[in-house]
Amino acid sequence: QVQLVESGGGLVQAGGSLRLSCVASGRIFSINSMGWYRQAPGKQRELVTSITYSGSTNYADSVKGRFTISRDNGKRTVYLQMNSLKSEDTAVYYCNAQVRTTTFDTLDAWGQGTLVTVSS
Questions:
Q1: I need a surface site. Which of 19, 54, 84, 98 has the fewest CB within 10 A?
Q2: What's the rounded Cα separation, in Å, for the pair 24 and 11?
């Protein structure tokens, strides 16, 4: 079993900042890519950003220049620094990790989600 636990969500005014964290635990051999998705009310879940084990990153156009993803491989933790938040960033944010549980087996793990609300 693999668990991802997010923290750091909350209510913030437009223009403000929040930092999300996600810690992985359980039966983990290694973690490949990690990322953050979000789902706004009435919309589909979308990829916000991802980061490989070596640190290569990918961002949705809507967050480029405002959000920064990082990870600490030793702590099995991924972070999302969100600056200049806009009302359209309001969503439930989900952590995702591609976890290798053995040399041969990989699973797609998800956190329970953390709500980010940006007030205008």
A1: 54
A2: 24
Return the ∠ at Cα 36 (arms to 30 and 40), rounded to 5°: 150
Selection from 112, 89, 96, 110 nearest residue 50 by Cα: 96
Closest CA to 111 of 84, 81, 88, 77: 77
The length of the chain, given as a count of residues: 120
User: Whole-angstrom Cα distance, residue 9 to residue 38?
Assistant: 12
pLDDT tens figures, 40-94: 999 999 999 999 999 999 999 999 999 999 999 999 999 999 999 999 999 999 9
